[in-house]
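Record pair follows.
FIRST:
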Amino acid sequence: MRCGVLLPHFGSRSYPARMLDSLEPIEGFGFDSIWVRDHFLYPPELPGDDGTFVDPIVVLAAAAASTRRVVLGTAVLAPHRHPVHLATLLSSLASLAGGERLIVGLGTGSRTSEMVAAGLPATRRGRLLEEQVDVIRALWTSRTVDHRGPHYRLDQVRLSADESLAHAQLWYGGITTRAVERTVARFDGLLLSRLPIEVTEQRVALLRRRSAAQGRAAPPVGLVVQASPGHTRQEALRAVDVPRIIDQSARYLNAEVTSPAGLLVAGTPADLVAGLSELARAGVDHVVLDMRARFADWEDCLQLVGEAVLPELRRAGVLAPGTGRESC
């Protein structure tokens, strides 16, 4: 398994200087990846009320300039950008970082208001995203592109794509069985979130079955999990609203959720080692720690995970001994 971390680029505690200062330490501690989120409009449930949300591509460009090894991932980009524009942005990012360092997570988005504000249809977002992916792949691999689709029309469009984009990966971000089907049909990986451990196991098993039926190797599975490290369990748990985390998962799944297992890893370093090991056994190939509840003491939490959790996971063989994206 690989382990990455979500950057604090949103909310009232997302000071740009703090975020930029953390990039080199993240790489130094041995994290495998750096991740960002995406919203066109500021989500009301995010920490703070100042509306701060630094654009994800801008953040990753800064990360590309400050790091040499870590994978740069999006978890996930919503479909409110024109695919030609997004293909150009990602090509520019690849020219800075190298396409082999990019995992581009894409999703349908969950907010109708964002699609309306962007002038896009609020329904059938899945079909919109599928067409966007087809356009992006064509622009990255063809000299010129002609495209006729329900949402986009391109006539002899040419993008000077960075050659390293051949190594970039497009992952689908979703939690349903339909997400698994879409991943097998069009994507290089599946990025899950907000799932109880038993549902993660079910999605992994389904992905493997559907991939085998299509004659392809099962793509890697990523998982964004909320995390709260502490020197004591009490310290770690004080910072998170466990009932709210469970309720959010239940609403997303439209099913009963009774335990935070798989949704949250919290406690001492030993607790995090145990929780992350369980995710690896469930079939997760790349875990992303979402420590938004700890942005107030982000640096301390980063250091605790980097010095006391990652080394133990590597010693136990849970995390791959190397760094980067080789296992993906």
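SECOND:
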Amino acid sequence: GLFPRPLNQEELSAPNGERILHLFKMLGKFVARSMIDSRIIDIHFNPIFFRIGDAPSTGIKPSLGAVKIVDPGLARSLKTIKKFALAKKEIDEDPNRTAAQKVADTESIVIDNVRLDDLCLDFTLPGYPNIELEDHGSHKRVTIENVDIYLEKVIDMTLGSGVRQQVDAFRSGFSQVFPYSALSAFTPDELVSLFGKVEEDWSLETLTDSIKADHGFNMDSRSVKNLLQSMSEFDVQQRRDFLQFTTGSPKLPIGGFRSLTPMFTVVCKPSEDPYTSDDYLPSVMTCVNYLKLPDYTTIQTMKKQLYKAMKEGQGAFHLS
């Protein structure tokens, strides 16, 4: 899900950094506005984004477990590196070892057949060599003596100081519409669902209760029944394509089809000689959730023409 890329202070002060902060602020306003309008936006947020964003009131701090949710690959690497720190800690706390033994055993620590020095790590953020974790970090090697500090700084840059200003910009934009603190009533996972990752009910029963047939069709019309049957069998991508084609948005509002305003309506699209209904493609009026469906002779023909319109009609605007 969406999560800010870490940025250092130099990047944030540059024109592109200012632009990124502006975009996060605008995103916050957009998300807040969507909540007021009961709209599910097509953005999948990472739940950690909201845990960090609400940190002042919840006290949630960056951790290796949180890194795993944001960047599983980085988390796996850090977990391996942490084994070196834990091995050193175990040696240091062993009362049965002499000081000389502790030094010797620490220098000989091997994890997964690799010594820490073999990893050639420095104090820069993994994957971002331009982001130094401390002054002149690119010239400072990670050793068994400072590996625990390295881990803390990587986690902080990934989930704390490196993304704080982006998250604060989002909060600032959101709060221009209504207080960000209002989100404390929701868990991060609930917010993710609220903003775009939600299961939609496309069952035949729900569709039948949520869609109106008019102007040449009624709910018992063959083509309407075929349409509803086909819609109930759509896969995830087909649902997105259908909604984008018919409503202008790939997601339903909160509450599903029943919450569409105006109500989703299917009407009969007439044919003119020498053509028949099977020769026509469906057309739509997205502003009023209006589907003009030819009275196809078979469900197979309807599916073929509907799928073609869904795929090739994306973004098109014509008189129908």
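COMMENT: DSSP finds 14 helices and six strands in the chain.
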